[in-house]
Write a structure and sequence with these properties.
Layout (H helix, E strand, L loop, with lengths): L11 H47 L3 E9 L2 E4 L9 E5 L2 E2 L14 H12 L3 E5 L13 E6 L6 H7 L4 E2 L8 H13 L15 H6 L8
Length: 216
């Protein structure tokens, strides 16, 4: 019976040297990958975690409206981080400004604010979050649909009755329906559409719809 060949055992110093060499070869690559993709990946994880928390906290829950900031913005009675209440930006609709530092009071802005105040101030509303896009806007406001006590959706009513525009700058699950609501309101001369001129439309809408009110 022949002798077994001796196993080749890598010396510890040689093994450590190889590990160090691999580490120094891979490190520049890892740094480049982290620089290019790490930030976006971390932000995506943060957004997902934050969104999950918002859905659990707000979606399908009922709150009291404490204040109407504008036709499309309200405050509800639940803390949001360091804030004593939560500011909600109505998703998919844009009403004429009344307090914007650059545009000032726009045509039909006061009427839109008065309508929202009439139907929700001091009342209980249900917050509905969408499944498309982010749950937070540029200023950290919660983006949501607001269901009224009579089961109608405030976002839709503002567009249908001519107090606001279908917001065409960002996708959401009701995008096409809201665009149709706006077309119908315009055709029926509802609310602001009765007398508004093209120059009185918000700049984003004139950019998205260059044909809108272009001709008599």
């Amino acid at each position: 019976m022949g002798k077994k060949k001796p196993k080749l055992v890598m010396r510890r110093t040689t093994r450590n040297a190889l590990i160090a060499a691999v580490f120094f070869v891979l490190m520049p690559t890892l740094v480049v990958l982290d620089h290019q993709f790490g930030r976006s990946l971390r932000k995506a994880i943060e957004r997902t975690t934050y969104a999950a928390g918002d859905r659990q906290k707000y979606h399908g829950k009922t709150f009291t409206v404490l204040e109407v900031i504008d036709g499309d913005t309200i405050d509800i009675d639940i803390p949001d981080g360091d804030w004593p209440d939560t500011r909600v930006r109505l998703l998919g609709v844009d009403t004429p400004e009344t307090k914007h530092p650059k545009t000032g009071v726009m045509y039909f802005g006061p009427e839109a604010s008065a309508f929202t105040e009439k139907v929700v101030l001091g009342k209980s509303v249900t917050i509905l979050l969408d499944t498309v896009g982010d749950h937070r806007g540029h200023y950290g406001r919660l983006l949501a649909y607001v269901k009224l006590p009579d089961e109608t959706i405030l976002n839709e009513e503002l567009i249908k009755q001519g107090y606001g525009y279908a917001y065409l700058s960002f996708p959401h699950s009701r995008f096409d329906a809201y665009a149709e609501f706006m077309e119908t309101a315009q055709q029926q001369n509802k609310g602001l559409w009765k007398e508004v001129t093209r120059d009185q439309l918000p700049k984003w809408l004139r950019s998205k719809r260059p044909d809108l009110l272009r001709y008599p």
